[in-house]
Design brief:
- Belongs to the homoserine dehydrogenase family.
- InterPro entries: Asp/hSer_DH_NAD-bd, HDH_cat, HDH_CS, NAD(P)-bd_dom_sf.
- GO terms for molecular function: homoserine dehydrogenase activity; NADP binding.
- By secondary structure, this protein is an alpha/beta fold.
- The protein folds into two domains: 115 residues, Rossmann fold (3-Layer(aba) Sandwich); 239 residues, Dihydrodipicolinate Reductase, domain 2 (2-Layer Sandwich).
- Helix content is 36%, strand content 24%.
- It is built from 15 helices and 16 strands.
- A six-stranded parallel beta sheet has the order 3-2-1-4-5-6, with helices on both faces. It has a six-stranded mixed beta sheet with strand order 8-10-9-7-11-12.
- Helix 1 crosses helix 11.
- The longest helix is centred in the first third of the chain and has 18 residues.
- The radius of gyration is 22 Å and the shape is globular.
- The termini are far apart.
- Bound molecules: NADPH dihydro-nicotinamide-adenine-dinucleotide phosphate and the ligand N[C@@H](CC=O)C(=O)O.
- NADPH dihydro-nicotinamide-adenine-dinucleotide phosphate (NDP) binds next to helix 1.
């Protein structure tokens, strides 16, 4: 691309992220980028820009040869895949913020880039404004990583902060996260842990060189959290954080999981509040490092997209350095053990989870809570049953790596 010319951007989506990017570009007048065309869905929606800026047919944008690069920021992951795949088939440069799209289609997206010579960057798709993909891909390209874990969803972290810091109710806090533009169009993705799972899959590809299908990652969220669980955490001197974690065992097997966890003041993630995300990258030689920043919102996410726009316009593409070094898909460490708290009304879940080292915590009307040890394999198998039962499960600490070999701490409630 000619470095002295104003580069023309075709933008898909003009919601929280699209408008965040547009606003940044409008304020930063010296930047050599201009949003030339915007594709949205609803012709009846009131827009902050004149109607001639918009089109409702994404093919029109893809056919516009005057555009230098494309930014995809729509809320529909399947439609987004259709757009991005077609753009890559045309050899175009594309930036996306859509983690579900990347998590579910990474191998196809890689193949399309290789075959047709286009480029796809997606820094904004993981941890919003934190530059974590490029950090893992570039800075840590040669150092083996032992673990990558953290808080990867801004909405659920915002909700948990409102509950623990301000004693607000779950529904009120979720509504605020939606009003502030942090939540997905379908907020179940945020609160159930699915969005964190998608981000974890992307991180795993860059951190360990392992592509993993989202279906293989057990995920649990805070959608069934209640006052009893919050009280249990408080009595423990902890808060609850939604933790997404992937590490390789000594046998080279992968432990990927998304699980709300008790987190006390000694934990790196304790200080990550509101819509902030925190990612701990643990290098074999450098040790753990916490990267903290805003994980959601128009400006932080728009800033990550902008960084990709600048990089892609200069010819940068991900080298997938670790991915290219590895050929095998990783086996999951199905026997790996985690220590958990389970609250439910269904005693069968204890059997379905194969919980061992059981300790009763509390009984209240129909509901009971227990502590126990569960294998990753059983967590994966029982996850639909747990969701169907409206049960709540969380890890006793965010230190999943050592969870299986540690003995449960004496818990204040344990009887
Ligand atoms: N919000 C955030 O903080 C973050 C969001 N993301 C990701 O960025 C993407 C956009 O999120 P966000 O801006 O919050 O979403 P919004 O719901 O705020 O906006 C979505 C935009 O997509 C448009 N759209 C939806 N479907 C289509 C379609 N089929 N064709 C054309 N346009 C369409 C909508 O059009 P219309 O205006 O007509 O309704 C709207 O402009 C998502 O993938 C999200 O996961 C990533 C990081 C952070
Ligand atoms: N809904 C997401 C937005 C950013 O990815 C979140 O809350 O983290």
């Amino acid at each position: 691309m000619d470095s002295h010319r104003l580069l023309k951007i075709g933008l898909f989506g003009f919601g929280c992220v699209g408008q965040g990017l547009y606003d940044i570009l409008s304020r930063e007048e010296t930047l050599p980028f201009k949003v030339e065309r915007i594709c949205v869905k609803d012709p009846k929606k009131l827009r902050p820009l004149p109607a001639e800026n918009f089109t409702y047919d994404w093919q029109q944008v893809l056919q516009d040869e005057s555009l230098d690069l494309l930014v995809e920021a729509i809320s529909d992951a399947e439609e987004a895949f259709a757009i991005v795949a077609e753009a890559l088939r045309q050899g175009k440069k594309v930036v996306t913020a859509n983690k579900k799209l990347v998590a579910f289609h990474l191998p196809e997206l890689l193949a399309l880039q290789e075959e047709f010579g286009g480029t796809l960057l997606y820094e904004a798709a993981v941890a919003g404004g934190i530059p974590i993909i490029r950090t893992v891909e570039e800075y840590f390209s040669n150092e083996p990583l032992e673990r990558v874990h953290g808080i990867l969803n801004g909405s659920s972290n915002y909700i948990l902060s409102q509950i623990f810091l301000l004693q607000k109710g779950y529904a009120e806090a979720l509504k605020e996260a939606q009003d502030k533009g942090f939540a997905e169009l379908d907020p179940w993705l945020d609160v159930a842990g699915a969005d964190s799972r998608h981000k974890l899959c992307i991180l795993t590809a860059h951190a360990f060189g392992k592509t993993i299908a989202p279906e293989d990652v057990a995920f649990f969220g805070i959608d069934y959290l209640n006052d009893q669980d919050v009280e249990y955490a408080k009595q423990d001197g902890s808060v609850i954080k939604m933790v997404a974690s992937a590490h390789l065992t000594a046998d080279g097997e992968l432990v990927p999981v998304v699980l709300p966890s008790l987190v006390d003041a000694s934990d790196d993630l304790f200080v990550v509040e509101q819509e902030f995300n925190g990612v701990v990258v643990q290098g074999a030689y450098s040790g753990p490092q916490l990267f903290k920043g805003r994980g959601a919102g128009g400006h932080p996410t728009g800033a990550a997209v902008l960084s990709d726009i600048v990089s892609i316009s200069k010819g940068y593409s991900y080298g997938y350095k670790k991915l290219h070094k590895t050929t095998n898909a990783p086996a999951l460490a199905l026997d790996f053990e985690l220590e958990v708290y389970l609250r439910s009304t269904e005693p069968e879940l204890v059997v379905a989870l194969g919980l061992t080292n059981l300790q009763n915590v509390q009984r209240e009307n129909e509901s009971f809570s227990v502590l126990g040890t569960v294998t990753l394999g059983n967590l994966i198998k029982a996850q639909d049953e747990i969701r169907k039962a409206g049960a709540y499960i969380m890890a006793l600490s965010s230190d999943f790596v050592n969870a299986g070999v540690k003995k449960s701490k004496e818990r204040v409630h344990a009887s």
